[in-house]
Task: inverse folding
């Protein structure tokens, strides 16, 4: 099964559970809320069209529309789209469709802004996706993308300790390969150059979710994990801001 099919199957099976995570009093729930808050802050208010690509269960739909934008959501998962269509039925200025980011059913230069949250790290052909996003975005239009941060201490813990231990356990228990979706992690400088080479100029970025307590301890002590993350969001010196588990990168189409 290819990566796109795995993504469709994964989210088709859990549209409501994924949406519920945003309200959960867990470390993961805080990460999702922190990412969303940062992305909406970078987007701001406007009167044009916004494409929310990989919109999932529409966790940003209400807030984007409330800022004055005409909202368009696209997702690979038919189940996700069915959920949000029912949720926002008959709401003016809100539109949804099933589709792939590599081949969008919109005219050239159609959108004033595009947001992609929790998407690009799962794509099989990221280059094709960015080219397609540039095609449907107006000149000087805004693209905001969330990416997992390679330099995050929490991700380093996962990458260098938990992942090898999980592989060893599956090997010894003869459990085969993990069913978790694989995703990429990014260096900000590398991703900035990637966008620059494809016709975008990065204008701003924000780190989010400063998770200090590593897995699985963050799940054992969720309240403490969230309190520390919130404290760091307010008081962490700017020189260390790149240490969040994720980054929201804002760029203009050239």
Result:
């Amino acid at each position: 099964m290819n990566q796109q099919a795995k993504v469709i199957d994964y989210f088709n099976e859990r549209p409501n559970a994924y949406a519920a995570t945003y309200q959960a009093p867990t470390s993961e729930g805080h990460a999702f809320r922190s990412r969303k808050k940062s992305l909406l802050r970078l987007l701001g208010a406007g009167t044009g069209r916004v494409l929310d690509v990989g919109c999932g269960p529409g966790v940003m739909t209400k807030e984007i529309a409330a800022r004055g934008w005409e909202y368009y959501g696209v997702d690979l998962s038919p189940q996700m789209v069915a959920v949000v269509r029912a949720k926002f039925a008959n709401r003016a200025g809100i539109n949804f469709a099933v589709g792939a980011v590599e081949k969008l059913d919109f005219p050239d230069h159609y959108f004033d802004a595009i947001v992609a949250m929790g998407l690009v790290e799962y794509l099989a052909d990221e280059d094709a996706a960015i080219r397609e996003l540039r095609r449907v975005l107006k000149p000087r239009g805004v693209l905001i993308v969330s990416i997992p941060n390679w330099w995050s201490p929490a991700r380093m813990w996962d990458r260098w300790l938990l992942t090898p231990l999980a592989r060893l356990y599956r090997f010894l228990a003869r459990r085969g390969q993990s069913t978790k979706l694989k995703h990429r992690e990014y260096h900000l400088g590398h991703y900035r150059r990637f966008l620059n080479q494809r016709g975008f100029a990065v204008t701003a970025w924000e780190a989010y979710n400063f998770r200090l307590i590593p897995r699985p301890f963050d799940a054992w002590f969720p309240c403490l994990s969230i309190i520390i993350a919130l404290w760091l969001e307010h008081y962490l010196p700017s020189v260390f801001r790149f240490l969040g588990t994720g980054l929201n990168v804002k760029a203009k189409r050239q």
Summary: The mean pLDDT is 90. Strands lie at 49-53, 70-75, 94-98, 111-116, 137-148, 200-208, 246-253.
